[in-house]
Amino acid sequence: MLRDALPKVATPLPGPKAKEIIDRRAKAMPNAIRCGYPCVIARGEGAMFEDVDGNVFLDWIGGVGVLNIGYSNPELIDAVKTQSEKYFHAMMNITTHERYIELAEKMNSIVPVKGDDKKTMFVNSGAEADENAVKIAKGYTGRPNVIVFTGAFHGRTLMTMTMTAKKAYAIGMGPFPDGVYRAEFPNVYRRPAGMSEAEAVAYYIGKLEELFVEATPPQHVAAIVFEPVQGEGGFVPAPIEWVKAVRAICDKHGIMMITDEVQTGFARSGRMFASEYFKEAGCAPDIMTSAKSIAGGLPISAVTARTEIMDAVTPGTIGGTYCGNPVACASALKVIEVMEREDYPGKALKIAEKCMAKFNEWKDKYDIIGDVRGVGAMMGVEFVTDKASKKPNTDLVNAIVNEAVQHGLLLESAGTYGNVIRFLCPLCVTDAQLEAGLEIYEKAIETCLK
What we know:
This protein is α/β, with parallel strands linked by helices.
């Protein structure tokens, strides 16, 4: 059974059938939609997929965080099939459909934003969720500006490209919207030399407050937006003391604190949402976005906030044709049901315990591993030329990714300099598959160092 299989590559990659399809891809699709992996999926189950040539791969990328519940979960298939036999589409501006309401009610009950009375809206992608969260914050506060951070990734719409730090994602796309200002994100590993972690948090908060003097007065700021764990930025967690300080700044100045949980959400962090850690520490966000694993692969995303924030938005400024598609809503409801029943946050913590122990063992063993970090099963290993210089080792990361896939393990890089290998494996991975992946990973490190 594929969901219990182990990685097995029997042909040179890409195999003959995969190569034929990849060649067709090159002729039919824009080159800007890039893919460097030499495999073409035929079917997937759990954390595994088989390609068109019969090779079996362990997927530690999970659709970049989409497949927390795994490939082809039978309960999701049944939920989608049942809904699809009733109707595919009903636009909420025209005909109310109950799946949207049910999912909104469920999200309102589990999303850890400030306030007892909450409302949720649905759109189609993480970028749309982030853009609508900003619109909602502007609508509520009546203010024009937004603060974001170095290392941030929020999407590829014009607004979210502006919010995103890495401008490789925005080459040739300007001019960009005004009113987006950037502060330094608290990357504790790369804090200024000689600082303790506590001193570093104070330093980064100081950098944020400098924006109020040098860029935008606080009374003009609608929202401060950040990822609880930066994704494309290198899997860098936001220190809880820093989040507390941001929350205090927001409360002082009437600014909305928005957490972008597009990648951290749906059990990945060891909680259903990483913002639960913030709520437990007394610093819950005002608005939260979620997407990716929300529906196991169907396109839907969410924005959740307390009722007074949501109801301040001018009618007609949010929404859209496909938002809250009933088939996607049915899948999302089933995802949440399965994750709660089978304790997917607990699965994430168990995986993290095993992997972090191994990753830290490698950190002690190899001078080219500078840092190991993460929250729950959203983990990153940062590769450097040496521990003393901390110089990013992008070439080594690329080599490790290319070597690992030849043995059936899909890894992906992240980070401003592409020198971090991320872990986003489906949380339904078996112990044997996890062990096999760790073995392939370390062998790839050793091969590439030689």
